[in-house]
Amino acid sequence: MQLTRRRRSRLSEAALAYLFLLPTLIGLALFTVGPVVAGFLISFTNWNILLAPQWVGLDNYQALVSQDLPRKVLGNTLYYTLLNVPLNMALALGVALMLNQSLRWNSFYRAVYFLPVVSSTVAASLIWTWLYSPNFGPINYFLGLVGVKGPAWLGSTTWAMPAVIIMSVWKGFGTNMLIFLAGLQGMPQEVQEAAMIDGANRWQRFWRVTWPLLTPTTFFVLVISCIASFQVFEQVFVMTNGGPAYATTVLGLFIYLNAFRYNNMGYAAAAAYVLFALTLVVTLAQFKFQGRWTFYEQ
Q1: What are the angstrom distances between the C-alpha of 276 and each of 80, 252, 257, 271?
Q2: What is the predicted pLDDT for the residue at 133?
Q3: pLDDT tens-digit map of 208-225
Q4: In this structure, is the dihedral angle defined by the CA atoms of residues 220, 287, 33 and 10, taken in order, positive or negative?
Q5: The pLDDT of residue 8 is above 80
Q6: Confidence band of 298 (pLDDT split at 50, 70, 90)
Q7: Which three-class secondary structure state does DSSP give residue 48?
Q8: Is residue 63 exposed (0-12), middle (13-18) or buried (19+ Cβ within 10 Å)?
Q9: DSSP state of 45
Q10: How far apart are CA 53 and CA 264, in angstroms?
Q11: Closest Cα to residue 60, out of 31, 77, 39?
Q12: Contact status, residue 107 vs residue 128, Cβ threshold 8 Å
């Protein structure tokens, strides 16, 4: 009898919990799971929004593999990621190490370094577009003072992507800086003090003590930085719109252009799932191999 009452009580509690969760579950199904499933089905169609979609099977995916432009776009995305991620992480770690010391105005410096993160990406992109101006921009002006002729940054197929990467590193390293700083401040001080007593200099303490203890934080920063780099869109859209000659067209912008400028929703959806697959594979690979270089405290 008591077991029956307990079961009824547990069932009623579970039913009440699901009742409270129901609005969230409905919203998740309608606005997250539903669009994901719909986008996957659309990727197998030819649909321009105005007319009914036509089923084309794997044609959109075959076009992405066989055509030159999607391959160039994929190469641009990898190029952006391979440069942006290590530069961002290196700068963030360097600033975090500096701010981890007892400095005067430490809180002020942290706020200053984090300020680009909370600023509007569109506004920051417009400012950097002016900075990169070949005729009126301060960057080329100061280069000219030391006898260097600055390039047409955003108008050059060679320099446009590095220019966007520099802006992206400036805009985003503050987040990783705070994560690294949290990791540094969470380290046990006894280990550092023991290394100092043993006579280790600052460089040796970093490589033998600080870096191994910081590898879990570094792994987390690496994963989120790669995901964010694969999804880059705003600064490319504002600063170059993918030009010149598709030199800065990345997958995010490629999806947007095909969906909302060329009304090719099926092709855009297929490209979006290629981006998802690329992000998933890279993330799984990072989790697969992180055990070789990530050290956790026992």
Answers
A1: 17, 11, 17, 9
A2: 94
A3: 888 888 999 999 999 999
A4: negative
A5: no
A6: low
A7: coil
A8: middle
A9: E
A10: 10
A11: 39
A12: no
The helix/strand/coil state of 54 is strand
| Six token digits for residue 67 | 């055509």
Tokens linked to 76: 């641009």
Element (H, E) at 286: helix 265-289
Task: Give the per-residue SS3 of 141-180.
Answer: HHHHHCCCCCCCHHHCCCCHHHHHHHHHHHHHHHHHHHHH
Residue 1 has what pLDDT? 52
Region 232-254 average pLDDT: 96
CB 115 within 8 A of CB 174: yes
Residues 52 and 38: their CA atoms lie apart, in Å, by 14
Which segments of 153-264 does DSSP mark as H helices, in order?
A: 160-185, 189-197, 202-205, 211-230, 234-239, 251-256
Identify which has the larger pLDDT, 66 or 297. Answer: 66
Q: Dihedral sign for Cα 70, 75, 80, 81, please.
A: positive
| pLDDT class of 297 with cuts at 50, 70, 90 | low
Q: How far apart are CA 192 and CA 209, in angstroms?
A: 7
Identify the DSSP state of 261. Answer: I
What tens digit of pLDDT does each residue of 86-122 get?
A: 999 999 999 999 998 877 888 888 899 999 999 999 9
**Residue 102 backbone zone (phi > 0: left; psi -120 to 50: alpha; other: beta):** beta
Cis peptide before 244, with omega less than 30 degrees from 0? yes
